[in-house]
Each structure stands twice: as C-alpha cells, then as structure tokens.
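Before relying on records like the one below, remember that each one covers exactly one chain. Contacts with other chains, cofactors or solvent are not represented anywhere in the record.
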Amino acid sequence: MSLPQYTGAMVRTATVEVTGSSMAPATSSSSGTTTEKMLVHSIGGWHFVLRSVPCFATGLSLGDIVHCQERDGALHLYGVSVRGGASTLRLLIDDAHEPLADNLLCDHPAAAAGWPGMRERIAGQLTTVGCTVQRLGRHLLAVSIGPDVDMTSIEQFLNELAADGVLQIQPGYIHQ
C-alpha cells in the first residue's frame, strides 16, 4: 500500500473574516474587514480540513472541515461543514509573569534562574496533556483542546492561573 503524495496544491492558506473578538489584530483587508489566515488541507470539492489553531476567528477549531471558495485569486473560508470535535481557547499572558521585557532580560526571578517564561511553561503543560498550542507574539497562546483531552482538568488549571492574575482566558469555539 502506498501513501498519498502531498503536493503544494493540497495545502493552502484560507482567509476568514474575524468578528466579535476583542483580541483581534488591528489589521484589515482591502475591503476594510479584519481577517485571519489559516492553514487548510484540501480534501476535494472545495472542502478543506483546518490545520492551524484559530487565534482570532472564534467560530472555528483545529480539525473542522470547512467550505472555501476562490475569490480574487485567494481562498476564502465561508463556513464549517463538519465539526472536528475540538474546542479552542485563547490565552493572554500578563506581562508581569514573563522574564522578557522589551526583548531584554529583566530582573524577573525566572530570567535569573534561566527558566522559560510563563507562556512557554503553560504551553508546555498544555502540550503534555494533548493540546495543540499555537504561539502568537510574546503573550498570546491559541489552544486547541481535542475531543480526547479532559476539558474539565484544562479549565481548572487555566481558571486557577486566571484567578492568580497570570492570564486572561477568552473562549473561541467550545465543542459541546
């Protein structure tokens, strides 16, 4: 049995309009709407599997099968055809808990000890329990929690950090 050969035409980026996210970037498309580009894998018939964790588009999750169309030479995402079963959270890590400030080492105890910053420690713990984590900038994590990961324990872990002022949690799409 031979495995399918992946070609560049099978993996593309799709653009989706972003609405309702207070964490959305201040950039916008030529039409004046805020957009996010995501990696998708073609499965035929203008259907694609979402292969990146959405950072700002709140109605999508890693693994969703989405419907896209070509417009003005670019692929645009128009909706979810089949849910993949994952949930998405966005985490904003507070500056006070990071050993780096303005790209320079500061007096933070973690920096002096050579430890990774809080963002990297949180990302590492989430990855260890089976989540997929995408980093954006120095403070933002987009987290995909698959259907086989215990959402209750993830929520408890993150809520404790939020209560301590370490991070802010903003849900993306929560699978029921």
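Residues 151-163 form the longest helix (13 residues).
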